[in-house]
Amino acid sequence: MDKVMSNRLVAALYVLPALLLLLVLIYIPIVLTGYYGLMQWDGIGAMTFIGFENYARLLHDATFWQSAYHTFLLALFSALSLIGYLMIALVLSGKIKGANLFRKIYLIPMLLSSVAIAQLWLKIYHPSNGVLNTFLEAIGVANPPAWLAEPSLVLYALFVPILWQYAGFYILIYYAALKNIPESLIEAARIDGASPWQIAFRIKLPLITEVIKVTIVLAVVGSLKYFDLIYVMTDGGPNGSSEVMASYMYHQAFRGFDFGYGSAVGFFLLVICLVVTWLLRKATASKDTIQYS
Amino acid sequence: MRKKPIAMLLTLTLILAVFLSGCSNSGSDGEGEASGSGSDGKVTLKFMHLWPAGSSAQQNKLVNEIIKQYQTDHPNVTIKQEVLENEQYKNKLKILSASNELPDVGVTWAAGFLEPYVKGNLFAPLDDLLSGSLEGKFIAGTTEAYAVDGKTYALPIELNISPIYYNKDIFAKYNLQPPATYDEFLNVVKTLTDNGVVPIALGNKDRWTGSLWYMYLANRLGGDALEKAINGTGKFDDPALIQAAAEVQKLVDMNAFNKGYNGLSNDEGKSEFMNEKAAMYLMGTWELPNYTTNPDVPQEFKDKIGFFKFPTMDVGKSDINSWVGGPGVGLFVAQNSKVKDEAQKFVQYFVEKWGESSVTEAGVIPATKVDTAEVKLPQLYTDLLNELNQASSLTLFADVQMKPTAAQVHLDMIQALFGKAVTPEEFVKNHQEAIDKGN
Asked: Residue B370's CB: how many other CB atoms inside 10 A?
């Protein structure tokens, strides 16, 4: 087996299928998107080459920047919510009663599709007979807001299910990383008289920094391209007050019959994702890696 | 050492096989062996429509009956259905168009909606059918909405007008009469809100729902001013069009619509009316089955539903028999369909059968002429059919009249108007800009 793998040609051949798939399904569409961004195209008829006009228009498009701002807010909230997830994972990884049950509870949203979650939360947020407003009215709030119709509230109302949806995923990652820490290290610290707080913040957290960095990148980049739940729940409305970059791209291309501009938005989104990933990697780069043993 | 080249060759063949099979599969998905006539005369027709069993139960039943009958009459034909809900349908149609993989037969809207598809050479002209066996079958003025440059690219199957449905029980409880003038209408709204009843059910997340209200107000205030502004012979700064926008916001201020309408879909808005929480609902006659034939709706509720025409206003151009409506959807045949002849035959068959059965079975109004003298029809249906016959004008839904890009601006503006995010002046200004762009 070693012999086969040492042959570069054979090795390349084994890599080839995956590479081809990646090329055909990911990289070529990316290039095409950038290319379509240079066109005026309604998606049906002939394309007209217009150079960088779409990209220039992007820079002056107030609605686009508004959606970019919403996307930024989502990324910020996702990143901040990681702190909460981490705390939960820390508690769960300790020896608490019912940890198993809690782990399952946090994981359930992960098992549901975004559309199911959206339907569920649509019922919760329903302005007159939703669970939330019925509850608020029951405790004496005279006129609870229509959460998904209020331009100033809708975005935050959407963040709740989005953060809830991903809680299980990040808690699971943190939990697995924490469980990976050798028991002997914790034991040694305990014998030396470290308090549970000290063990959590001085030993456990530093040991999983690499994982934390990865989750930050995942959360931020994931938020940048977030689409599905918002599409189902509000469709970017009312009046674009919950529009994010991905939904704006979709609306331009498929609703407005402007595939050229939609592609430009999409390509811009890709560039932003790449830049942000690169920046995050830079900002969190560490000199030495931790080894347990 | 001998083995290596063989192993490599095998791997390479495998990779190629995987990719080629992948390619040929995607190719045949659209038109290859899946749909097309084989040597044995077997034909598969792909038919994409928007009557899911859930939300359009009666229409769905009817479609299935027609298809079943067609397949019995034409044993060599198999019809494969793909059913999508309204908005999804529109999106999928665009995606399939971009890759030129439209179904053999599909559903389209008229006028501005249809135009890009015709310009992109995706729909086949159906004039042969119109001048052939279907000649004179359609109600005058219905097929014209599907014509571009003198050729007809789809055949309409429905004709709709939009009345205001109301709950007779709720009206009776507060001693209200169906209003004939706008002042009376405002009084109805006020009485209902004073008594804590939601006057109007509206789900404006879909936006064309709010557009109906604006269109009627524009029509009652300015006659055909809106149509003129859309087709370029007039302007949006017409005082009547600004006034209509102001009237919408006045209704909003009166709390005329159910709470949170801008965040609710049409189905959610509608349920306020179906659950008798709201007294009125402005919607096209495609909703009729829910008040007449749909077995899932209790008869008790159906009996409570009446309708009235959008009230008139104290201005000269106001005409109570002027309706917002027009042909609903029509059937197209894809230009690149491999089985165009069969597809056209099916369209012809479908239009005829739909015309005969839609009245009695689905309770919707077809675009073809029907003799309703012999069948016993629900009163609500007969009344509306009579209204349709007396209609002095039909204003085609604005988002269908406009070209797609302008239609999007219109819909966005409607939501902004109902959400009070724009002033009536900004509302008309943005419309004018969109129309001026001309795409």
From this structure: 17
CB < 8 Å to A238, chain B: 204-205, 262-263, 415-416, 419, 421
Element (H, E) at A40: strand A39-40
Of A16, A238, A259, the CB nearest to B263: A238
In chain A, which residues have their Cβ closer than 8 Å to the Cβ of B207?
Answer: 237
Residue B439 Cα, gap to closest chain A Cα (Å): 9
- Minimal CA separation from B404 to chain A, in Å: 6
A283 with B430: CB under 8 angstroms?
no
Residues A145-171: tens digit of each pLDDT: 999 999 999 999 999 999 999 999 999
ipTM value, please give it: 0.82
In Å, how far is B422's CA from the nearest CA of chain A? 10
Q: What is the pLDDT of residues A116-136, one digit of tens each?
A: 999 999 999 999 889 999 999
List Cβ<8 Å contacts ≥24 apart for B177-182.
B178/B306, B178/B308, B179/B308, B179/B311, B180/B308, B180/B311, B180/B312, B180/B320, B181/B311, B181/B312, B181/B313, B181/B314, B182/B220, B182/B311, B182/B312, B182/B313, B182/B314
The Cα B278–Cα B276 span in angstroms is 5
Look up the pTM and report it.
0.84
State whether B419 and A238 contact (CB < 8 Å).
yes
